[in-house]
Amino acid sequence: MPGAGASRQKTPRETRQARNSRRPDTSEEPAIAFRVGCFMRQSPRSPARLPALAALAADFDGTLAQDGQVGSSVVDSLSSLRSAGLRAFLVTGRELEDLRSVFDRLDLFDAVVAENGAVLFFPSTGATRVIAPPPPSALVELLRASEVIPLFVGRSCISTRATQEPLVLRAVRELGLDWCVVRNNTSLMCLPRGVDKASGLRAILDEIGLDPRRVVAIGDGENDACLFAACGLGVAVANACDDLKAEADLVTLEREGEGVSAFIRSWLSTFPRPVALVEPGRGTKSRFAD
Length: 290
Description:
By secondary structure, the chain is an alpha/beta fold. It contains nine helices and 15 strands.
């Protein structure tokens, strides 16, 4: 039970709403509205004025992809998004090499956040950047000795099945590491504290000078909640876990990629065409035509 001085931690949705309420006046920016028919539920602020959204940050498994496969309609929707001048980021718990083995259209994205925030990849240049410490060898050895199966060791992230959580937690505590675990539906990831999808996305947004409040996050799992908290709008696909749906501003009627495509179509049907976007290193704000 919390002590007398303890306070309840804000949910991701409360954090996002508090942050957006402090947003500078944007009365001259066009209102953004979405067609209600695409969604199961909208928060009170969803159809009202929103920050001028400029980018999409999408999860992969269970969001863009079904059983590791991305449908042609999703690819077409992402292409339309990019053709409209908007940015797109892929944010996933997968290792980069694993992602490449199942999806060959990373060129649709400005950047990829892999390993749940630990690795950044830039398709246009092929550059990869690891922004989190590697897994301690003692932890990997102890997990193997504890027969944590399966065990996938990335450049920073360690992953396994969610059923292995007790063994992973015991190993982290036994070694006194400042690492934490996060669930993603039936999967479990172990990373240095402070490394998550939101931290990885922030690293990219800081570099290009884009305010995270102008990003739409869309996902399906527990590890997407931090993205919802960091971005201006959170969208859960129909197959998302109940905890994420509770944090979402919008919930799509369709599952996985079809839900993403429906959201993108609705967005583009009401979105002013951008005439200038943020350029890397310049930090200028996007401006939109009426």
